[in-house]
Amino acid sequence: MPSGHFLVSVGLILLGLLVGQRVDMLPVQASVNAPVYDELFRVLFSIGTMLFLGICGLLVYSLVRFRRQPGDFGDGAAIEGNLSLEIVWTAIPAVVVLFVGLYSYNIYERMGGMAPLADHSVMHAMPATDPGSGDRVWGGISTVSGETADLTVDVTALQFAFIFHYPEGNITTGELHVPEGERVELRMKANDVIHAFWVPQFRIKQDIIPGQPTVLTFTANRPGTYPIICAELCGPYHGGMRTSVVVHDRGAFDQWLTKNTLPVA
Amino acid sequence: MESTSELPVSLIPNHGSWLRYLSFSLDHKVVGIQYLVTGFLFYLVGGVLAGMIRTELATPISDYLSREVYNEVLTMHGTIMIFLWIVPVVNGAFGNYLIPFYVGARDMAFPRLNAVAFWMIPPAGLLLIASFFIGGASQSGWTAYPPLSLRTPALGQLIWIFSVLLLGGSSILGGINFIVTILKLRRPGLKMMQLPMYCWAMLGTSILVVLSTPVLAGTLVMLAFDIVAHTGFFNPAIGGNAVVYQHLFWFYSHPAVYIMVLPAFGLVSEILPVHSRKPLFGYTTMVYSILAIVFLGLIVWAHHMFTSGTPPWMRLFFTIATSFIAVPTGIKFFNWLATLWGGKIALNSAMLFACAFIVNFVLGGITGVALAQVPFDIHVHDTYFVVAHFHYIVYGGTVFIIFSSIYHWYPKITGRMLNEPLGMLHFVLTFVGFNLCFGPQHWLGMNGMPRRVSEYDPQFTLMNQISSVGALLMALSTLPFLINVFHSAWRGRVAGNNPWRALTPEWLTSSPPPVENWNGPAPHVEHPYGYGLVETTP
Amino acid sequence: MFGLVLFLVGDGMTFAGLFAAYLTFRAVNPLPSGGVYDLELLLPTINTALLVISSFTFHRAARQLRQGSGFGCRLWLLITAALGAAFLASQMLEYFKLPFGLTANLFASTFYVLTGFHGLHVTLGVLMILIVWWQARAGGSINRESHFGLEAAELYWHFVDGIWVVLFGIIYLL
Ligand code: HEA
Ligand code: HEA
Ligand code: CUA
Ligand SMILES: [Cu+2]
Asked: For residue range A141-194, what is the model confidence (pLDDT) as tens digits?
């Protein structure tokens, strides 16, 4: 019944693609790398659905089709193995994970995660990390940044709050304000224990580790207010360690900046 | 070799007093049951703690427990479930009970060492629980990341370290014992490739135990130094490095997840052929895939640290290595499906749990492969998505298999059958409760709920309440199970020696077995899975 | 014996973990000013010699037993134990002469934990040798026919010795 198998497989693949593309289970996209992330999510979700439904279908089918009839004390067919089958089901997952691995490498590259970090000289040798090259949006951790950002903010994490300091304007605040569509660089440090900076709508997260200055860059592109959540257990009030990031359009941001800039004495 | 071999077998009563279960017994079967019962008691403790977690999380505000206590509860829940329930049961309990049968021996290689290993567990567990009442338990999660673990109340943290060291020590002694028993105590003429699959699984697991647990021990000693002597290994405030701890910790704790699941893989491989009356499909590839998992398991630890500031090349390497674990694991799953295909399947409680294991584990494994992708993990790391991933594997996988195994081997251990309708009820409650509890957590994690919090954004209330109801169902499901186990011990149908008409060696003796396993010489089992090849009498 | 080998593999992994931690610390965490990696080499070199020699003397003891000389065996065992004790004494001496304490800096802490953990192994080893020595007395449980205890202790001793050589290379020479 090869045509039956074929139909089932095609149906499964279509169903997987459909589910993967249609179901949207993630929060709104508010940064440049959110759509990139969601693309990966959809692909993984499609593949996962196919595998999961395929295996469950096979299982349930076997349980129904091959159930033991009452009074039957015989044995099933004494098949102990089949080399070509083994090869097939080693090869298929191998190909799938290889594809997934390379694809997520590509995604990571597009998010800017592969930018060499922590070393100034390498940084300059890599033209790709040039701010001009558009879609590199995520810098990850580094001791020296080397990238030019449109806005730099110093972040201090401590039990149990984030403190943001804008060197430009000498503003200190508990709430992060950033302009839309511009590259923001957070220079983060932790005072006591490990914290993590997470904005679900930006799809970025980075641990802030004491003794290890960290740089995280992102470009927000959707005005609004989003939560900043500390994602690393940091003590009793870890669950309460949250604040917001407000994404303004350029004009509103400038207003905010001037309103809060301390007058030079 | 200590054993009762000086006594003629006929003089040793099969049914000693139940008090022998409280004694320093050298009989591998007694030790196995000691592990099983102790582990289950700790499961109930861990479950009550889980119940407290889910009660707290039924509302978005932190009301039922204080924040400190919540952290103590979640730390103890993780620690107890892993080190006192899963690891002792899938390794210690079934390993001790089954391995000597499978290799055709009368006991383990070092019976005394075995008893010592078991008796390290109750004090460690009691100490851990006691720490709640003396100054507060550890609050830093089961991962105990410094510098947090250096700043939370020191006494609880030190007790935690001490207990985990004891439990790790016990597990190393057990691992050595298993390796020696499997390699050196085989009945003459029994080849490695004729061993039941559980032996291979335990061999692989024990290799992981011996290679990785000592590293954890060294790490925890350093952590203790940091707390007691104020050295600065992991304390950045005085020049130390907190990330080094994470590497060392996960070098143990990733292999530890295979220590929790490989033996369960072995147990499934014993259960499926019996109840579908077919040989285990692809024995040889199954063996190689276990060895491949062991090897890969040792080189993927940093996938827990994708946001810890690891260099990009390292992230890439660990992504690829981790993803490839899906290949040998997949081989096992497809072989199990092929074992079922064309069989004569009896869908009893043991089989229901075993088949549900396949469903749950595949889901947990697929989310695992997703987590292994650095860019994917960055968003969901340290969220409920991860909590869902590992409960699908640890509960939906290993715990389901523990239940399946209890249904399968109960007649062997007690000589009586468990009640089937109660077993079905147990299964349905567990399966529904489990999926209700952990399914919604995937969504929670992706949408912004971090783990290890006692309060959350009110938008997540509904999903959390569904999850809590699921936990309640799981708690209820233990009732029919407990009733069944106690009732059947006295009133259950008498099983006969081999109610499943199975071919593996433990069934070729009386149920329950005599002290030295066989009243005659150990049988030579060339085809432990020879269904359809070997004559089985109905 | 195979069980002991497995145990030593595990024990070796503990050391491997500590070594790995030490090397990483050294690679990524600069010492505060005043901290140095260079140590006085004289005593540790003597120590290395003591341990290496003691491996040979232990081997000698085992051979004597196999050749039937219980007396020779006990003599060489005592010599081995003495060498081990001398090692411990000289290690203590080094500790007292060192300019830094346990908590001075990362290097100091790792140094003390590694050498201390190894010292613990040597102490256990010396005790073991003394026990074997006692059991090898005339009429004791170790004799020409049955000498498992002796061989186990010997294997352990070589292991401790080997770890020291690695430790010496990594901590003192590197
Ligand atoms: C028994 C326990 C167990 C097991 C077996 C696994 C198995 C796997 N785990 Fe899991 N994991 C945990 C327990 C376990 N895990 C725990 C406790 C944590 C959290 C720790 C903490 O932080 O507290 C965790 C966390 C965790 C993380 C870190 C997440 C984070 O903190 O951000 C990652 C990331 O890579 C991961 C990956 C995997 C992978 C790839 C597997 C693979 O082995 C799965 C392989 C299986 C399959 C894939 C299914 C079967 C295969 C097929 C049917 C073939 C076809 C499939 C494909 C081609 C995809 N796990
Ligand atoms: C290894 C095995 C294992 C098992 C079997 C379980 C079983 C369960 N776990 Fe958990 N869990 C972990 C390992 C495990 N867990 C680990 C490692 C962590 C991480 C800890 C950390 O972050 O450090 C964790 C964390 C964890 C969290 C996240 C906490 C947080 O991050 O804030 C939650 C939340 O829902 C949870 C729930 C549950 C539930 C409902 C069960 C249920 O399946 C339990 C069902 C069993 C019972 C309920 C017991 C039987 C019933 C009774 C005795 C009657 C009394 C019952 C009540 C009072 C309700 N677990
Ligand atoms: Cu800061 Cu959690
Ligand atoms: Cu892992």
From this structure: 443 344 567 888 999 999 989 999 998 888 899 999 999 988 888 888 898 999
Question: Which CATH number does B13-536 carry?
Answer: 1.20.210.10
Do the domain assignments include residue A129? no
Q: Kindly state the greatest CA–CA separation across chain A.
A: 96
Number of domains in chain C: 1
Residues A106 and A213 in one domain: no
Q: Whose CA is nearest to atom 32 of ligand 2?
A: B452
Gap between the Cα atoms of A157 and A210, Å rounded: 9
Closest of B494, B476, B492 to residue B484, by C-alpha: B492
Q: Using the predicted structure, report yes or no on whether residue B83 has a pLDDT greater than 90.
A: yes
The ligand that comes nearest to the alpha carbon of residue B453 is 2
Is A209 within a domain?
yes
Q: Are strands A151-158 and A183-190 parallel, antiparallel or unpaired?
A: parallel
* Residue of B71, B81, B389, B431 to mutate, ligand 2, most atoms within 8 A of C-beta: B81
Ligand 3 centroid – CA B149 distance (Å): 14
B255 Cβ closer than 6 Å to some ligand 1 atom: no
The total number of structural domains that make up chain A: 2
Residue C93: CATH number of its domain = 1.20.120.80
Minimal Cβ distance to C6: which of B179, B231, B241 = B179
Which chain A residue has the Cα nearest residue B378?
A: A205
With contact defined as 3+ CB pairs under 8 Å, the chains touching B are: A, C
Tell me which residue has tokens 């904005």. Answer: A199
Task: Please judge whether B338 and A85 are an interchain contact, meaning their C-beta atoms are less than 8 angstroms apart.
Answer: yes
Tell me the two tokens of residue A71: 């009074």
Contacts of C21 (CB under 8 A, 6+ apart): B218, B219, B222, B233, B244, B248, C110
Answer whether B343 sits within 8 Å of A69, measured CB to CB. no
pLDDT computed for residue A163 by the predictor: 94
- Residue closest by Cα to atom 1 of ligand 3: A195
ipTM of the complex as predicted: 0.90
Residue ID of nearest Cα to ligand 2 atom 52: B475
Cα–Cα distance, B192 to C63 (Å, whole number): 36
Integer Cα distance of B123 and A258 in angstroms: 64
Return the half-sphere exposure (C-beta side, CA atoms, 13 A cut-off) of residue C128.
20
Indicate the residue type of B372: A
Q: Domain residues for A95?
A: 2-66+82-110
pTM: 0.92
Q: Where are the domains of chain B?
A: 13-536
